[in-house]
Each structure stands twice: as structure tokens, then as C-alpha cells.
Amino acid sequence: MLPMTRKLFLHLMLLCAFAVNVLADANNPKQPASPVPAATEADPTKDPGVRKLSRREKKDRIAALSQAYRDFLRDVEPIMVERELHTFLLLESDPQRDLYVEEFWRRRDPDPRTAYNEYRENYKDALVEARAEFKHMSSERARIYLTRGRPLNRLKITCDRYLQPLEIWEYAELPGMGHDTSLLFYQPRLGGDYRLWVPRGIEQEDLAELISQELVGQAGGDARRAVQEVFYDSAASGGGGFVSKIRIYCKEGELILKAISRAQQSRFQLTQLFDPPKMQDEDVNRILRATVIGNPTAPKLPAEFSARYPGKRGARTAVEMTLIINRNDLKAKDIEGSRFYNIDITGEVLKDGKMFETYRYNYNFDAATLQEKIPITIERYLRPADYKSRIKITDINAGSEGIIESDIVVPQIEVNAEVASLKAEASETLRTIQDDVSRTGASLRIVPLEGELVTGLQHIETILSGEAIKTVEFYLDGKKVMVKRSPPYALDLDLGRVPQPRKIKAVALDAKGNLLTGDEIVLNTGSDPFRVRIVSPRIAPKVTGKIRVEVDAAVPEGKTLKSLDLFLNETKMATLYAPPFVQSIDIPADLGIAYLRAVATLADSTSSSVEDVVFINTPEFLQEVDVHLVELPTTVLKGGKLVRGLAEGSFKVFDQGQPVKIAKFDAVDNLPLSLGIAIDSSGSMRDRMLEAQRAGAGFLKSVLRKGDRAFVTAFDTEPILVQKWTPSLADLTAGLASLRAEESTALYDAIVFSLYKFQGVKGQKALIVISDGKDTASKFVFDQALEYARRAAIPIYGIGIGIRSADVEVRYKFNKFATETGGNTYFIESAAGLGKTYDEIQNELRSQYVLGFYPPQGVKTGSAWREVRVDVGDGRAKTIRGYYP
Q1: How many CB atoms lie under 10 A from the CB of residue 753?
Q2: Angle at CA 484, nearest 5°, toward 478 and 487?
Q3: Contact indicator for 246, 256 with CB cutoff of 8 Å
Q4: Between these two residues, 114 and 380, which has the higher pLDDT value?
Q5: Can you tell me the distance from the alpha carbon of 27 to that of 543, in angstroms, rounded to the nearest whole number?
Q6: E strands, 178-231, in order
Q7: Cα separation, 701 vs 760, whole angstroms
Q8: pLDDT value of residue 38
Q9: Among residues 811, 825, 823, which one has the least CA distance to residue 878?
């Protein structure tokens, strides 16, 4: 007997791994040889938005569906996750189901911005092909065909003497199995449809089913012994063994052996091929919040309904629907001694039995201000026709709800005073243009861009008037980027992937190249509540006589404008006290180069003034020099404890390793504090939301002092400002009380959005971000949000609730925002731990220093990232890692 070589032994062991399926099938035909494992989705009934359905309920609800919806469920069963099925079966009407079907395919669309849904169309084609190709749609080949797509090649293999009929499917790539991979299907010896071969181990039984009945019969004995004899006795006797027989006698022997090897290496991944593509839980359940679905176990909330039609907008009629509820039927939420009622409205409008539109509103009421009867008004704009209105009103604190259905007949409304208002607005715009034309013979205005944060490729359009204009030059941040000598006077500008302040100018020239007029817009300037801007003129190269100066001023909530002064050079020309801030100013013919200046001052004498300047009668554009003071919020630690009371001389600042002069030094005790709080309000925060609201209100109550202010942002699928900048603790608490937990998590978008709110804000600033999980819905990616955070240079304090230690990537990214900006990160188990965390943040914020320096000469705006370092004589200084000039 010759000994087996090591290589042959390994081949035999690998082939042995190919047989568990067969013997199991032979000895127990009812036991699946390659079972389709249960989906690994979380139990859908654990989400409060999904009511648990028993097996009988599911069966009865499916039976009650019309044939079209039963066909839909049958067709998409291979790709529908369990949570989606539960959601679909909870819907109450065909219009809701139609809406769900559209949402089902939208979730899988690789590019939802386009009208064409590639996934849906490919799946429909694959479904037609699978029905034609496979006998049963529940078969494993059919399921793989639908869940993983068409293979590049399907090889049907016949080697009757040694093997059962096989198929090898080749794919360019499969999840978890890499590139250029294959799947091996076999037909069981006892008949039936092909099954995917999934090795269970390295025993020889794994291969038994692949061996033909003829070979087993020749070997004698039962199947298990026969396989052993074929593998080991043949090899030991020098006959070459089963591997050699496959190579020699099967035409595709090498492909078979390769497929066996690949299956053995990926046996755990193979079990997951039948799982439908994973979906975000919050996204799946969104339709339950967007449609009117009653909870049969919820307490009833009565409401009176009425409708009226007070006006119109264009061709649509204003429909004003009013619900009146009794205060005694509601339950209040208590936050830091203040009581609030929280009402959610979900509405459907149906036309001819089809869903016309859906809407949602959230209402938050301070209990101290409410009367016995609470009116809630809903306004929609509908074309004249007959509709059915369905409204669900929910008290989210008590869980009670009511559903009101009503037929509404929307009438045709004649033109009213609204048109006059629109005409007056248009007349004001025309008056401004006429003033420009009368002064210069030409007018140019840049059409404002939509959106608060503007990035990427943007189309810049202008509105021109005057035959003298022959050329328009466009500038971005002071640099000429385009010259247009013929209409249309427009261009596309790439503003970069990360929002940052950008200045766009357009100037009009005559045939000789002389400046006539122009306009300028500034993008991404932030939302500081106190600012002033000269709207017109922005560019005035040649101005004499009377000109119309228009100024826009924004005043913080709760503050009063003391005055708005207009200066020509340093001569005060007018003082305005209330809008509209428009004034005619006489420009002497011999004045030459000059500037207009607008200065706004608040009645609160402790606030500094803000101003804006526009140069006039400039022969050419004045070169713009942006002298940017870099501020470094700095914390000093010694032995883990905060160090207070240091003098300026204790600090040294280094820019790219070189020492720079400190131009500004403040201790935080001398500065007002400007805080932003961004709270995750996605569905996963549902059980923690009340704790987080109360802890947030408690933090603001303890940290805010006179002169401080804050804002509150909530974020689920997208961020939203729930309370703008205010010093009022009551307003901030009300903003926190309004939060609802639902949908997905747009963490990165929330960080960018919240940091944007600090643009133009001076002094001590910090952003506190509270979240319980990874980003699932942002338009900005991590690197973009991190770059924006670096540019903003505002300390970020991240609070991660319930983020497990195993979630290494989530923790790393969350922590990165803090370390790059000089903040800190805290990971806690539940919202109950927020109080202690807030105390630590407050202590640090009240123990900081703000250092400032100007970049070295020659450092240009827009140049590369520069590293900074702060050294302190006794202790360790923590600050931002660097800045963009």
C-alpha cells in the first residue's frame, strides 16, 4: 500500500467536505440538504411603530388583500425583509398600499434623484426570466437569481458515472465571497429541484449527495461506506482517487474542483445569500407615520372638525381645516418645572379613491398659555374638486388618538387682495432696477441661490437692463473666473464639496471696458441673529447725485434695534429706526472714491454694533485683503484637573511649528457663551427622548448666564432648527419639548448644519452633539463633515448614548470631531447619565481661554490646512488641531 501524498490527502479532505447534504437527504428526505436560514432582521414588533401581528393575523390580512397586492407580496418575497411585510400588512387602504409600493422600490433605488429606478426595472426583468427558467419560484436557484442577480455564466455539468447533475453559476462579485466567484448547485439523488451546496464541515458525508447513484451502487454497502471506499481505498491503492477520477472523466473537472474549494472557504457567507438586502428600520416604517393608520388599542381623543376656504394661491384654493380639542382630554409633559402639550397631526387627502397628498404637522403648546378649547388649524392648497380628508390627531404624551374623516368640496375662488400684495412686491423690485438704470443707464442683479447651505455645482444667473452693457465679468472670492460677452450672462460655478463663505460678484462693462454697475452676493454666511447688509448699491463705479440706499438688518429675538446709521465716508447722512431701511443720499460730483457704511446698534447697550461697507466711485476693483483672526478656544489641564486664572504670558502659540504673536486673549469668565445643542431625534432615541429632553433643559438652566445664548437643532433624516438663537431659557426648553423620535440618523448633516449657525458669532462658542448610533442618512460623508468642522474651529462635545465598545468605527468617527476641534467625547449607557456629563462639559466651558492670532504674512485665504499648537508653562493645553486660512 503506497502512502498518500499530502496534496492528495488535502484534496480528499476537501472533497469529503462536499457530502453532508447527500447522506442527510438520503437518510432523511424531509430534512433540507441546504436549508435557507431565517432572516437575521431584528424583530419588527420591537419598534413601537409596528404593532405585533400573530401568525393567524398575517394569514388573514394577506387573504383579505386584493389579488394585485397578493401578487406584489409574492413577487417581492425574496427581497422583502420581515419588517417590511409587517408594515405592509398594517396598512388600512389601497391608496396607502399604492404609496407603500412606490416607497418599497424607492428604498432600493441606487439613484433616487432620477425618474428611472434601475433596481426595480432589473428586478422585474429578472422575475420574468426566473419564471420562464425555473419550475418553482421558491426554489433556491430562483431565490438566488432574484436576490443576487443574473450570473455571468451558468454551466450545466453532466458526469453521470461519478456525479449527480450540477450547475455552476459564475459571478463577477458576491457579498462576502469576493471577486470572480462561483456557486455550486446540485440535484438531490432522491429527485427534486436543484439546491445550493453549502458545506457543513470537513466530513466525507458532505460530498455524498454529489456522487451518482451508479457509483455508490458499484462501491457496495450503504452510501457512507461507499464514499469512504471511493475516497480512501482508491487513493491508497494508487488508483488516483476520486479527485483524479473527476479530473479525468468529467469534462469540467477543474471547474468542479474549484467550485468545491470556493464553497468550502465561504460556507458561512453562503448561508446569507438567501437573506434579502438589509433596510434601515426607520426608513421601512416611515409610511406608518406618513399615513392615517389607527391603533385599535389606543385611548380615544375626541375632536371637532370644520373647513373653510379663505383665499387662493395661483390656481389653487386655500383649504383651512380646524380641529378643536378639549384641554382636559390631553396629558402634559413636565420638563424642568414647565408643562407642555404635544400634538401630532397626520393627514391624507384622497381624490377619486387615490392618494392625492399626505402631510404631517407637530404642535407644541405651553400649558400655562392654553384656554379650555384648543384650536388647531391645518392649511392646504388644493385645486377646485371633490376630495376626502382623513386626519389622525395624536396626543403623544398620553398615546390617545382620534381619526376624523370628512368629504370636502373645494370651490373656485376669485382673485383677491393677495394679488395686489404680489404686485406691490414686484413694483418695489422694479423701482430698485429703475433707480439703477436712471443712475448708470444699466442695471445688473444676481438671482439669489436657493438653500441656506450652498455647495457643489451651482448655476449663477443674472438679470440685466440697459443697452450699454456689452460684457459681464464674474468673480469668485475676488478672483475673476469668467467673462461673458453675449447673452446669456450666466455660468456654472463649483463651490466645493464643503459649505464655506463664498463671495460671488458680477460686474457689467460697456463697449470700451468701463464699469457700469454690478451686484454681489455672499453665500454660507451663517445665521447670526444680529447683522446688517447694504443691499443696494453693492457695486457702484460711477455715482453722482441722489442714489437710493437699501439696507437689510436682522435683530435677535427679544431685542430691539436702537438705530441704523448711514454714513458717507465718516459723515453721518441719516439715522433710521424701523424698516424699511431705505434712504436717498446725495453724492457730490467731485467726491471721488468713497464708501457707504451702515451701522446697526441694539437698544441693549452691552451689545456691540455691527456694520457693513460698500465702496463707490472706484476706478477699478479695489484689491480685497481678508485679514482673518484665528481664534483658539483653549482648555488647560494639570493632573487631569482644569487650570483657571492664567495670564496671557503663560501661553505660546505656534503656526506650522513657528511661533506667532498672540493678538487676542480672553478668559471665558469675561465672555458671553454661545452654545448649540444638536440632539438625535431618530427612531432609535424613542425610549430615551424624554430623559434627554429633561437633561438638556437642566443643562441649559444651570449653564446659561446673563449675556449667554443658545440654539437647539434636532436631527433624524435631516437636521432642523427647533429653536433659533435666544437667551430665553423658556424658549429653549419649549424647543426641547417639541422633539419627536422618528426616522433615520443624519448625524454628519446635523454637525455641518449646526456649525453653520455659528458663522459670524464672536466670543466663546461650543456645539454639543447627542446621538446614540452611526450615521444612516446624511448627504455629507464623514470626511466632508470633518473638514467643515475643522474650518468652523468650534469645539464639539460629543455625547454617545448606548454606543457599544464593539462599534469601533462609530466611536472613532464620533471622537474625531471632538479631538480635531478641541472638544471632548463622552460615552454613556443611557440618557440618565447626561446630568453628570453636562456638569463636566459646563466646568470645561467655564474654564477656557480664547487666544487669537493673525496668520503669518504671505498666507493666502483658501490655502491648505495649517497645524497649530498651544504651549502653556505649567500644564497641558487642549485646543483645535489647525485651521484653513
Answers
A1: 24
A2: 135
A3: yes
A4: 380
A5: 100
A6: 178-186, 195-196
A7: 25
A8: 34
A9: 823
